[in-house]
Amino acid sequence: MTWLQAIVLGIVQGLTEFLPISSSGHLRIVSELFWETDAGASFTAVTQLGTEAAVLVYFARDIGRIVMAWLRGLRNPAARGHDYKMGWYVIIGTIPVGVLGFLFKDQVRTAARNLWLVAAMLIVFALVIAAAEHYGRKTRPIEKLTLKDGVLMGTAQSLALIPGVSRSGGTISAGLFLGLTREAAARYSFLLAIPAVTAAGLFSLPDAFAPAGEGLDASGAQLIVATAIAFAIGYATIAWLLRFVVSHSMYWFVGYRIILGIVLLVLLGTGVVSATG
């Protein structure tokens, strides 16, 4: 990996991780379009540590309150309020992606990164997001979140193992279908991603340094810089998105995804880019 690649991919990761447009899909597209290669699933997972660090910093007060409430609730049943339940919702909601990610880790790193699949998922899941925006009541605040919501949104998060789907797109869409407001769905989406993405990034660290044919070979310094860039830009993206969804629909992202998917299909069909790197 060159320094230019590390910097550009860090920027792309920070810009796209929290938007419902698929960061893994964008990293795959940018790598193939400009360098005719694949940065690799391991590099993607490690740089996601930067964006998850941004979540930890941005929601530090909320996370601290939830963790303390969860610990108190374990000892004292009378203290089991909303924050205690939220702690369990995040833990339980993480199980589906953890199980499926472990079972299909090899496919996620190989077959799932085919650009034909990425293009198809960009378009197909754009329609899912559009349906969620259209049919979702968007009336329930995050305080009304239930265990059922957590499980269903956690299951939707596991779809993001396929590049092109989008972690936030999957969880936010599920939340909208369940009647949550856009802001509530987005907030829970960010919290839900913390355990899964952090675990995936730490698990992928050895592979990122020695991709063994499934990605670019990044140095330790390049991984650190790319992750730091992803953190800084990711933090700004969180703040922007939470303000944006209060007064804007998800249709903006739907249109972008469809256009990008069609452009990618054309590039693949004309041989400008290769599907497998």
Can you describe this structure in just a few lines?
The chain is mainly α. The chain has helices at residues 3-16, 23-35, 41-58, 60-75, 82-103, 105-109, 115-135, 147-157, 167-177, 182-209, 220-247, 251-269.
Q: What characteristics describe this protein?
A:
277 residues; mainly alpha; 12 helices; globular
N-to-C span: 15 Å
Give the DSSP E fraction (strand runs of 2 or more residues): under 5%
Domains (count)? 1
The structure class reads mainly alpha
Q: Averaging pLDDT over every residue, what do you get?
A: 92
The percent of residues in helical segments reads over 70%
Biggest sheet architecture:
none
Question: How do the helices and strands follow one another from N- to C-terminus?
Answer: HHHHHHHHHHHH
Radius of gyration: 18 Å
* Number of separate helices: 12
Q: Runs with pLDDT <50, length 5+?
A: none
Strand element count: 0
Overall shape: globular
List the topology elements.
Layout: H1 3-16, H2 23-35, H3 41-58, H4 60-75, H5 82-103, H6 105-109, H7 115-135, H8 147-157, H9 167-177, H10 182-209, H11 220-247, H12 251-269
Helix pairs in contact: 1-2, 1-11, 3-10, 3-11, 4-5, 5-8, 5-10, 7-9, 7-12, 8-9, 9-10, 10-11
Please characterize this protein's 3D structure.
The chain is mainly alpha-helical and 277 residues long. The protein has one domain. Helix content is 74%, strand content 0%. It has twelve helices and no strands. α3 (41-58) packs across α11. The two termini are 15 Å apart. The model has no long low-confidence stretch (mean pLDDT 92).
